[in-house]
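Re: the 247-residue chain
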Amino acid sequence: MGPRWKGKGAEAKALADPMSKIVLKLQSSLIQSDARGILCGSSVLLAAEEEQALLFSRAYFGHPIVNADKDRQWFQLGMEEAFFLCYSLKCLKIAGEDKRPKDDQELWQCMKSEKAGFPVFYKAYSHLRTKNWVVRPGLQYGADFVAYRHHPSLVHSEYAVLVSSEGDAEANGRLNVWSDVHCTLRLCLGVVKTLLVLTISKNGDDDASPSCLANYTVDERTVTRWSPEQSREEDTTTDNAESQATE
């Protein structure tokens, strides 16, 4: 199942403005402005000037928040998004209630305390984002994430992503029974998406610090529903043999 572009010329627009370059521009802008976010429960709030807000929208990080601030646009970042900008791209500082920027270790512990299995989900998120996929929450599709080839205004999401971890009880525990597999595949078929299962292997490492991510590996598997009606081949050999015998 390939990409489904939205309208004529959408693919050409995406090729002319690759997501990798957009993210680099956002990264440069955040570094130059010494951007700082505020940790608020299970999300991070960030104020952006007009030009930077446009880059956030183009790179599709976070959700814009309606507010009374006329000079700045506020965004709400999910935990994986915020940690990606802070830890992987090194372009965002995140402060807690004391308004002091947290170091990587402190932020890692905060994220883990807010979301069970955060290390596994973050590894899956960063795995796709570093490959220039736009990754968004997938709750409405019964998945952990959905992945877009480019900005959602240009293309429909291509994958519904489920994250699992070998021997990790904190992962979502999906696809352990046939009924779940069947229902998930039927749902993906109904919304025209391919089911992508990312299995994270910790390789014996713990999750005491974010440095463990370097030792984690990701196994990618797509799961599709086999249809015998579509896959069956006509037995032309038998038909020809019967025709010759009749003659």
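The longest strand covers residues 194-201.
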